Amino acid sequence: MSSNDNNPKVVDLNQRSAAATLGERPAETLGQVRTHALKRLTALATTLFENADDALFDLASKADSNAVQAEYFDGMREVRKKRQQIELRFQEQLARQFVDFMAGRQPNALKSEGGELSLSLVDNQELEESLAVASMVAKTENRLQRVLFAVNQRLSALTNQRVEDANSPVGPTAVGQAFRTASSELEMGLPVRLIIYKLFDRYVMGGLDQFYDELNALLVHAGVLPQMRSSVARRPGAPAGPAATPGTPGAPRPGTPGVPGMPQTPAEMAAEAAVGGYMPVDAAAAEMQANLYSSLRALLATRRHDTNEGPMGLPGGYVPLTYNPNVTPLNPTELLSALTILQNQALSMQSAAETAQLAIKMKEELLGQAGKLRGENGANVSSADEDTIDLVGMLFEYILQDRNLPAQMQAMLGRLQIPFLKVALLDKHLFARRTHPARVLLDSLAHACVGWSEESDRDRRLQDKVREVVESLLKDFEDDLGIFDRLRIDFEAFVEANKRRADLAEQRASEATRGREKLLEARRTAAREVMQRIESRELPDLIRNLLSRPWANYLVLVLLRQGDTSDEWRHALRFADELVWSVQPKSSAAERERLHALLPQLEKTLRHGLATVAFDENDVRKLMQQLNVVYQALLHPTDPGGVSEVPTLELTDPLPMVSQDGADNVMSAIEEEPPPLHPAEQVDEQWTNAVRELKVGTWIEFTDEQGAKERAKLSWISPISSKYLFVNRKGLKVADRTALQLASDLASARVVILEEVPLFDRALDAIVERLKSAHAAKSPAAAQQAAT
Hints:
Layout: H1 8-19, H2 24-61, H3 66-102, H4 124-143, H5 145-159, H6 172-183, H7 190-203, H8 208-221, H9 266-275, H10 283-301, H11 332-346, H12 352-374, H13 383-399, H14 407-414, H15 417-426, H16 437-449, H17 461-476, H18 482-534, H19 541-561, H20 567-582, H21 589-612, H22 617-635, H23 664-668, H24 685-692, E1 699-703, E2 709-717, E3 724-727, E4 733-737, H25 739-747, E5 751-753, H26 759-778, H27 780-787
Antiparallel strand pairs: 1-2, 1-5, 2-3, 3-4
Organism: Tahibacter amnicola
Protein name: DUF1631 domain-containing protein
Pfam families: DUF1631 (PF07793)
């Protein structure tokens, strides 16, 4: 590498040169993005190297042989020696990618143009490195796809070029490629190199969440697509880090990009096992989730101290078992075997009634099946396993009653109770971690189903896809939790493909509504301007018709094309004023002289306006004839035949004026505001506040007078009329409502706002409240103590 390559100032000069093509302000904003990216990504890399020494030392201390130990110690020394050089080269590579991006050059991406890995003609170590880096990139892109979409859209708007994950200078691909290039300086074996990549995945890729949020905030502050909804960003409850701790039963098997579910290579698996799991990026959220789970377990445990009248008034299926010291509790293998048999039986369940019955009878069914396997009349489980069984039962009982889910989807997702009970028994992190793969899959399914209706899914594509996921779990899930990640990746790819089509339809619906709103507002404005000039004056019918019909239409066109600050708009209004003055009685020679001088300009302006609204030429001639008669009388009140001194208006035989079709629409527009749907109702302030707090992307459910229900998403709020536009999941318009109409509908339950909180979170909150209430009914003092 030349001395110039090591000088960051050279990169800065190239950066400024390339940025010159973008214009001053975009270049300045992109420069801020570049500066922030270099600062934050370099800081993340610094964190990596600060932890690398400890990680390698810990591995060396646990090594099985002197040779392996020596390899880790050699790796430590190599990292220490090359650290500064690698950090500098990492920063330079990131800066160079910005230069290439601004110059429109294709990056040296990890993927080929076809999207597949380029794996031909490389040695084994090169292949292992390619797979390791590509795997972490694909995992990060999938995990952060929403917030990445927002960054890419804003960079596209800023640079006027199409920005995607593959060519973004701040995307995971660019970050991974920059580190791979920089780390080529390290002289070490493949096992230690893969350890470094795993640490990079943890500390750099795992820290991109906050970095992308900061980039979006920076671009919004600079005025780049400030109205873009945060729905494109990572939604609450979506994974903020890898799905589970590697090495535990819940660990996902990161797939090779383009081949979801492909197992890791042995070297990569060894590196991941050596390094260990991820710490959650959002520590506060993780702590809250752990506290919630602890509360759940504590509330469930209190049931064992209540024996009178059943535990806390909960349904019979959740009554704690009577302990029998003569029956050995089921071990994990027996529990899973019994669940597998029940799981096969659940494949035939379709109705909501069957699914609901299973939710509260699961413990009874499971113990009965386990007893059969033992050859005994009954069975018993440990207290911890019993709490888990009941907790999963309450979770799915909630799902089967969830207001957010349509009934058909409730029944379908309810069939997952047995697979999820297996997960909960295998991995206690299910309830304690939002990022657990099974939990994320359930939330993804529920999120996609919120907007489902038979009307919006006539081809049954979504319904069949959800059924496919459910039945895949019922058929194939035994104890490999990686299946949840593989199914989620496939399902979210399906949802995204359908979302792109829906987004196009939604955009057309909002544009059509926006166009109608602008037209209606222009008509109202034109009508008001005309009415101000004619309603309080005595005018000939000819003039009144001229201004309220063809000229009002001309005013509408000028407003739509030029706006109300244009010269053409001011000239059009001045013509209306002068026309009104021109037909008032003239009491002096000076007024008649002024009128005589004004007529040619009035004729010129009138002809231009009528031509603009496509007024027929014959009708123009007739109109001019009629105007000529009016002006003859005004200029020669005592000599109506004195035509010779009137400026020519192309007179022929006088004919009646022909009005333009549709002109009445303009004048009626001033009173076109539709009445409220339910004007007699008094709307409480809480409902108007609820409407004001609605955000674009919120789903609601409409119920019509016949009781039919339709789900729709708030797509757009008109800045002109403040109307709310709603579309279905295919992007087709369902309804539009004023704020008052919506508030009235909310008050009368004709509209219900669906919750945006992920399903699993809502269910856990509801279960906690249910347990607290039941416990309070048994012992108010104990309930108060548990609450504190």
